[in-house]
Specification:
53 residues, alpha+beta, globular
Length: 53
């Protein structure tokens, strides 16, 4: 798993066990799917358009 710390106890995680690279979010021990894959997440992050949901 690769993680990204949003600096507010929120983490984005990519699950490489899934070939699509499903993204997950973790906040204070709760984990839920972000509804995007790693490619979509990285594109949004680099463009500055990705927001924590």
């Amino acid at each position: 798993m690769l993680t990204y710390d949003w600096d507010c106890t929120i983490w984005s995680l990519v699950d490489f066990r899934d070939p699509a690279g499903a993204m997950w979010c973790n906040h204070e021990g709760e984990c839920w799917p972000q509804g995007m894959n790693f490619t979509e997440w990285l594109t949004g992050t680099l463009a500055g358009t990705l927001m924590v949901a």
